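Data availability excerpt. The first of two example chains:
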Amino acid sequence: MTDLRSTPLFQRHQDLKALLAPFGGWNMPIQYEGILAEHRWCREKAALFDICHMGEFYFQGDFEKSGLENVFTFSVKNIPVGRSRYGFLLNENGGIIDDLIVFRLDEDQVMIVVNAATADNDFEVIQQRISGGIFQNISDTTGKLDLQGPLAREVMVRFFGEKVAEIPYFRFETMEILGEEAIVSRTGYTGELGYEIFLKSHKVGELWDLFMTDDWVKPAGLGARDVLRLEVGYSLYGSDIDEQTTPLEAGLEAFVNFDKEFVGKEALLTQKEEGLSRRKIAFRVQSRRSPRHHYEICFKDDSVGSVTSGVFSPMLGCGIGLGYVQPKAADLDTPLTIRHENVTMEATVVELPFYTGGSLRK
């Protein structure tokens, strides 16, 4: 644990007796009161997450002349100011170096939000692919809190005014919070109505304390966040997607714009032409058992793949998971058997999301 980085809220997590564990090179809170309790609080009220471990980059300049327009699987120049877009940074083979979100701050400015474990490599890769403009890693000076849940909007309005209530899904506003300029975005990773707040790292503790004065708000750790994201089918980098996985295999082609140039495009076009050798599936277990990472997936007694993510879903009352299988076992309603040593569980291929009752777009 001594080599792990800590967020500005580390002492507060300790004071709350949070269970801390390594995640992406950081010492992060996994749970406080308990994963199931925190999960339910997020589904019903407003949960507060410390997400300061994420990486943030700033770019200012000409998107096309610098080459930034061709770095990602989506168009940067076509993102309207005040909106954000999700997509990928790929290698030459079409593998996913990272999944990320780009926020269009101004006509010539963006903020790029990346995963914690990949942040340093992402910065180097992007820097090598562009020329000109200002490109900075602002991760150390940027903090991030996520307030997620059906009551999140009312909490935000209570503290910061009615302007917050007007922010539509996947848009953001730059506004003053605690005397500092902050970005308030209607995005999240839980399937619930929520906000991601980016502000100077030295103000994160003060904002956390302010939220914690509200009776509708409780802290939640990465354990609950993992269950929440999996119930709505969001992929986790390092588990469900990585450099050996392409967006096509992951069923995420919707976030790839083939009408523009980007690194890895030719490899993806070749893969489309030749066909996929494996596909990501979602499956539902016919019991309360939890499938786990690397469990074997079988179809008609043949081993056809493995589990990449799995949990017990409190909202569905059964085990759910994601995994990669041979195409013959990827169709909806296909019966599967999940195996690991003496553990066996029957499952069925289903559509995503598993859980559809969230407040995400309300």
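And the second chain:
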Amino acid sequence: MHKRAFLTIFLSLLVMLPGILFGDAPATAPVATPPAPVMDKGDTAWMIVASAFVFFMIPGLALFYGGIVRSKNVLSTMMHSFVAILVLTLQWTILGYSLSFSGTGAYFGDLGFLFMKGIDENTLEGTIPKYVHFLFQGMFALITPALISGAIAERVKLSGYTLFIVLWATLVYDPVAHWVWAADGWLFKMGALDFAGGTVVHLISGIAGLAAALVIGKRKGEIGSLTHPNNMTYTLIGSGLLWFGWFGFNAGSGLATNGIAARAFVVTLVAPAAAGAIWLLIEYIHTKKSTALGAASGIVAGLVVITPASGYVGPMEAMIMGAIVSPICYGAIILKGKLGYDDTLDAFGIHGVGGALGAILTGVFAISLAQGVTRGGQIQVQLISVAATGIYSFVVSYILAFLIEKSIGFRIEEEKEIAGLDTEIHGEKGYNI
């Protein structure tokens, strides 16, 4: 037995002797090269559909906002959403996408994709064509500045508004999108969770609306005369179209067809249902009425709060988040009267407050946290994300609104405001009855 073991050792040393004498390294298996990314037809098809869903939200927003304002301003208010489609599509194509998703900077992209340079039908973003990624993210870039219009409706020039949203998209939206969603963004690296835009879309647009409203001041007239919605059927239908589009907004944000997308779809149904029901209950307790405007507002608040968490929470957590957001946003809307600012359509009260709350609650309820981050650490990161994006948006938005007001004018002249923006700006009427 000992002889056999000795023979085995001797033969092994004999085999190794050339390497010992001449320094040859022992043979090793070659390192496997990671497979090249391949386009997935299922992911691509879903993302094209999801992009169309999100685009459909913009006319939905036009109806939602257009129904709440007075009849003399319905057309101008709806035009704010459609003008955003026109000018921001061009901005996104020329440099917006590049500032958001190119380069390796921590704070903003470079001009690597200027005019979509270097992208063709074979360029991939994960498992989908880069063109589809440009398309889906572009829909977010179109609707986010349009949300701001709700805070300043019924008193702004079209020229001032157009200049504001183009500059705001370039200086606020694109950099913040890079911070949160680009792989090299500083908040992304910190571990901030924002699946579909609680900070990037809702918080920064609501905060921008507040800043602009503070610069241009209140509408003319008594408070009671300013709150006469012209068509609540528009608003109710608009909220339904927003809800429909939001399924693509949230479920598409994982850029794939998988279980996370399915769960995001489910929670996008559950949270606004809970929020809408609670809003109606609060209204009834407070005023003994449950209104269509309350139902629509509750639905949108629920959609806003679940947006950042949609890829990270389940149905139970979504229901809780929906129940929490309604009393907080309802209170924020009541509080604006006491604070004295005129947020015409409650863009800050719902999008700003709801987006901030959703971002924070994402840290509280997320099923999976950022890698290497504890629950307490995740909540801290979420708070940093809310503070950084909110403060940045407010400061830049206030400066932009101030400079536009002092140069070409942001607010329309008083006599034109009183006559109505539809006839004074567009030479048309929303209703010829």
